[in-house]
Design brief:
There is one protein chain. By secondary structure, the protein is α+β, with helices and mostly antiparallel strands. The protein has four helices and four strands, in the order E-E-H-H-E-E-H-H. The longest helix is centred in the last third of the chain and has 11 residues. The radius of gyration is 16 Å and the shape is flat.
Amino acid sequence: MPDRRIGRDVEVQVTAPRIPCKVFSNLLDIPDPVARFLSAGRPGADLRALTPGHIEAGDRVEVLERPAHDVTVADVLRIHTRDQHEADRLLVLDDRGERARAWAQEYTTPR
């Protein structure tokens, strides 16, 4: 089941928080954009396209399904970047959160 519909036809699933990389940093003319992005606490999301189509600015975004857990994209990013002690919260994520579950397993595995 898709998480969201954009416009009339496009259906997507939220899969992970969008984490800036060096390419993103190089495009902006501001000091340390990655740190600014993370401190703002308003992450975007990576999406998996389930039904491709055409999207235009101003298209309506409709939520079709919400997961049963209470973990948000913002929670995933916060836990990944600074609160690894809460990593067990990410273990409840289904296959849409495979990257976050991998982080959780890494953080909760004894070394």
